[in-house]
Every structure is written in C-alpha cells, then in structure tokens.
Amino acid sequence: MENVLRPLIVLGGSVVLTLLIGWATDRLLRKADERQTETPLWGLLRRGRVPYQLVLCAALLRGSYKQADLLQEHQVTVGRTLTLVLIGSTAWLIVRIAAAIVDTSFTRFARVHRDPARVRRVRTQVSLITRVVAAIVGVVAVAAMLLTFPAMRAAGASLLASAGILGIVAGVAAQSTLSNMFAGFQIAFGDMVRLGDTVVVDGEWGTVDEITLTFLSVRTWDERRITMPVSYFTSKPFENWSRGGAQMTGIIFWHLDHTAPMEAMREKLRDLLRECPAWDGRACDLCVTDATPSTMEVRALVTAKDADDVWKVRVHVREGMVRWLAEHHPYALPRVNTADAALPPGTEAARRFQDGGPRRAHEAPRTSGRA
Fold first, then answer.
1. Which of 360, 337, 251, 366 is nearest to 301 (CA)?
2. Are the C-beta atoms of 29 and 42 separated by less than 8 Å?
3. Best CA proximity match to 334, nearest among 301, 364, 368
4. Beta-bridge partners for 296
5. Distance between CA atoms of residues 184 and 190, nearest Å
6. Sheet strand arrangement including 296-304
7. DSSP per-residue codes, 282-295
C-alpha cells in the first residue's frame, strides 16, 4: 500500500501545489491589473502563466522525485528529463517577463510622447531588443541543456582547443548573416528606417511592416509584401518619405491648349482643394511650366499630411479639373490642328492660289479637331 500511496502523494501533491500557487499568483496579478489601469505590466505578466506553472511543477518534481520511490532503475533519466524541462520553461518564462517589461516601457513612452516619428523609432528599437533578448536566452538555455550531458562536457573541452579555427570558418561561412545582423542594429539605433515609415525601394512604394535582425518587410499599396535583407538599406540609396516629417507635396500635370484660362483654373483649383478633406491647407499653386507648338504643360502643387493623403488629393484634383474643363472650357483641351498651311508670299504657288479665288493664302479657313 505504501508503494502506491507514496508516489501518488508526491506526484499528486506536486501537481496540486503547482496549480494552487499558479491560481493564487494569477489572481494577484489580475487584481493588480484592475487596480493599476495606467500600466499594462500586470496584464502582460499574466501571459507567462503556462511557463510559470511549468517551472513550479518541474522544480517540485525534481526536488521530490527521490521520495516517490518510483522507477528507481530510470532515476537518472527521469531526473535529467525534469532538469531539461526546468531549464526550458525557465528560459520561456524569462522571455515572457522581459517582453512584458519592454512592452510596458514602450507603452508609457508612446503615451507621453506625441511625435509619431520618435514613437516609431523607439518601437523599432524595442522590437529588435526583444528579439535579441529572446535569442540570447535561447542560446544560454540550449547550452545549459547540453551541459547536463557528461559527453557534451568532454566534447566542449576539445571544441575550445580549436575555437580559433572554428571561429574563422564560421565567420567566413556566416559573413552575409553577420553583416545583416550588424545592419539590423545599425537600422534600429541609427534611425535610418522605422516601423511604419513610407519608403520607395526598387521603384516600389510601400510601408515598413516588419524589421528583424536579418530581413525587412515592406507592405506595398496593393498589399504585397517585399522582403529584403536589412543590409540593402545600409548599402543602397532609398527614399524614406517619413523621415523628418510625413508631410508631402504632390504634383499634378495637364497638357492643355494655349487658350486655357489660367486664372479661372487657379480659382477652380482652390475650390477643388476646399472640397477635399485630405488637403492640409498648407499650400497650393498652379502655373505653366512648359510649352510646345501644339500644347502647354500646366503644373499644380498641392500638400497633404502624409503620402496616402497626397495621393488622394492628386487624384481628386486631376479628375475634377478635367471634368470642369470639358464642361465649361472645352476649347482648352488639347487639339490637333488641321488648318491649311499658309504659303510663303511671292511664290508661284501663292500666285496661282490668288488667281484661282478671292481668298488670299493667309486667309484660308482654319479648322480644328479635338484630340
């Protein structure tokens, strides 16, 4: 009877004690979260309930397994397994706690500072710091697990003797990976590009969606994802429309006839911008920037608070101006000239034309067709 009750009491008591401590800790964190709503720390710490209970259970079982008097011939194997579970769950718990602390610090920072560019910069740095901490804890945990095996300890001594050669080989083999990792740190702390920035890379316009130690993802306007190594942003030029402020100036071009009413177009431009909620009211302008024998180039400048709004303003103004010209000033739209050519005076062809009718060559009727 004792052989049955002893392991049942030891193992069952460890599990029950783990559940009770886990429940009490979770209830305390919940009450703290309800009392202190200004900080999300306690609510974020509750995400570590599972690794916390694994640590408690593994520690209790590891300390009381000998008293259970169960599977004596496999005592070493069971003890090593519990040690591995304890190390892994401890690393998991440390990562969750570190993530909760970092996220809480970022939330407080974002709540105090209203500058979007600065908040995105800190968010990028916090994201990379969390990943670095998780990677370091994971490496330490794996190393601690390997050191629990005596064979690995002996192998470690021989590996240390050839550490110089292995370091050189690993450095050459992982040159690209290491360069990307250092580029990731340079991007995070050099404020080159941040999460949420609007960038143009390889002719593609999009928003920075994710930054890791090795790659960066850009979400384009048509919801595609462009993934590229972070070393691209430290070795090649790219456009960052969000750096130094998200405000932008947009350009709209029209090719019109030389008779286009410029003053009326300026008034219409102001009317169209007043109707457009995306216009930020900073500036607007309309002028002739070029002229050809058949048309002239008219350029309008508009402003908006960011790249998305400046696109909306350009589309709204372009469509409204073309519709207004077609309805009220159709003569201002580009036309193809189909008039007869005026003959040079004094030529034989000009004299024959004069003899053939009452009209002179320079009085020939002009007709035009809209393009």
1. 251
2. yes
3. 368
4. 256, 291
5. 10
6. 248-256, 296-304, 279-291
7. EEEEEEEEEE-SS-
CA distance 202 to 199: 10
DSSP string, 116-137: HHHHHHHHHHHHHHHHHHHHHH
State the pLDDT at residue 324. Answer: 93
Helix, strand, coil distribution of the chain in percent, nearest 5: 60, 15, 20
Give 348 or 30, the one with higher predicted confidence. Answer: 30
Helices (H), 36-115: 41-45, 49-68, 75-112
Give pLDDT, residue 178: 58
Closest C-alpha to 318, from 371, 273, 277: 273
- Tokens representing residue 15 in the block: 């599990």
pLDDT band for position 353 (50/70/90)? low
- Which position has the token pair 């601690």? 144
For 7, the enclosing helix (H) or strand (E) is helix 2-35
pTM listed for this prediction: 0.46
CA dist., res. 353 & res. 346, Å (int): 11
CA dihedral for 98, 102, 107, 109, sign (positive or negative): positive
Find out whether 18 and 51 touch, Cβ atoms under 8 Å: no
Residue type, 96: R
Beta-bridged to residue 288, according to DSSP, are 298
2 or 202: which leads in pLDDT: 202
Question: Any idea which of 91-95, 132-136, 310-314, 324-328 has the lowest mean pLDDT?
Answer: 132-136
Residues in contact with 260: Cβ distance below 8 Å, sequence separation at least 6, in sequence order: 296, 298, 325, 329, 332
CB 31 within 8 A of CB 66: no
99 CB-near residues (< 8 Å, 6+ apart): 44, 130, 133, 134
